[in-house]
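Intended use. Records like the one below are meant for learning the mapping from a protein sequence to its folded structure. Do not use them to infer anything beyond what is encoded.
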Amino acid sequence: MSNSNNIKTLAIIGLGPRGLYALEQFLRYSSHLSNKNYCHILIFEPQEHLGAGSVWRIEQPSSNWLNISERSLEELPKRPEINGMGFHIPGFPAYRAWSLKNGSTKEGQPDVFPPRSKLGTYLNARFKTLAKELIGKDIISIYKENIHQIAFEKEKFLLTDENSRSYEADEVLLTVGHQPTKLSNQLKSWKEHASTASDILLFEKAYPIERLTNEVKINHSSVIGLRGFGLSMLDAMRALTIDRGGEFIETDSHTLECSFKTTPKVPKTLLPFSLEGLPLAPKPLNESIDKLYEPTQDEVLTFKKSISEVGQGKSIKEDAQFLKDEIVKIVVRVYAKLPNKIENHTTPDEIKRVSLAWLEDEKFQHPLLLNHQLKKREVIERFIQMALNKSAISLDYCIGQVWRHLQSTWYDAFSHANQPEETIARVIDLHERLKRYSYGPPLKSMQQLMALLRAGIMDLSYVSDPKIELVETGWKLTKNQKAAHVNCMVNCVLDSPKLLKIKSPVVVNLLKDKLIEPIHTELGLDTYKNGLVKCKDKSKNIPLAVLGRLSKGSVVGVDAILECFDGQVSKWAEESAARILGEQTND
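Structure written out for the chain above:
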């Protein structure tokens, strides 16, 4: 399939939230051109509901929750109406306004965390109002295909899909989300082992989560290992309990505490485990508690200025110390003002010293910090009480919540940093370590986990790096002279966007053809601020742009839904519209 010689073509591969916003912004900037040239847009997205992507699929169960509250989603912007090359695209409301008209709980306490399918419904509805006009005007063509290869010859891209059909384009935007990676040696051995017996089950990945709900071999006698102790484990936990007929019964509407009523379809035991076995810290219950950790406007501006200067390369850093220093400046003020903290007479200097020591080494111990030598159940209970503001707040919990408020500012200030690759990697390592606090789940999730512990269904005896043996009946987990036999294993560890470990054909082929390269061996690919891929060989720079997870390292914020609607997308759109339609924008 080829485009007409005098009409340029843009191909967008992947139309989840980021792809949707990129399309909207491209049309917006195109409409601002005084020269109304025509272009055609090819969209490649195998998901049924465009705009939603795989993470926010409409058809997924309501037990899969967003990890951001309705209140925080106020920042997801509306789409203004767009009048362009013979088309009129109506405006679409911001998520919050749309949500209040579509059954959202009104403002109040506690914070509401909607199902991921609800956000998917919003995104798909937003796409439909756009597509209705553009398909009728023959401006976009939609293909429910995966692109496997992108070649560039004679100033043109040749795209090949999974069925060997080909398409031509002048520019390509790659906005795919989570990509499969090569199996670890552990998972390879498990896969081979599970193939030896029909009564051994292995789920190489937790999603789509419905497979756990529908698996007929799982029953009341099943003992299930959950590899991973993060957010995906909580999704798997709900899929294996409430989605199989169990019920969480709220016993306290103020704390969201609940009990669990099981059924014959619910497994006998759930055994989560990870290398560290460190529990997630739930987000504060409501807005008033959350505001205790909020930096002031002046603090945010000062933080952004300092981080931006480092990002611009005004001083070269060897590690993440500069970021720790800036975070702690705010933490000292916030912790000192908390009405409910571990020690009321601690000096600012001591708060600073302990904060920096903990950011350097999470195993550092001090009375201001939660003692992670405690049993994991007690750690979770303490975190829950902190989220409710009903017990003394530990300094580590405070640091995590302050960092959560600073993250979007950091994303903006430090993306495409002019710093050594190793420095960028260390900064991202710090961010990843703090996610246990800053990306923590809704409080209700941890109350559900506690309900399963009380019911004897969840067991944390093996949560910290158990010994795992392959046995005839499945897997044997051993820890502290205790042993458990598991006949079903679920991998709840999400693939990280390490470019060199991704196995999807489009990425493998781009690497093979040397059209892309990683910014660091443990990170994603190297891109400019406008999203165009960066190659060491400048002669290979081509109009191929990548936005999102694949560019982790160049961009530091890739996992949050609000980052799908950020300034980099707009920058790509403005410059791409100018290149394709041959004129600078007036905006």
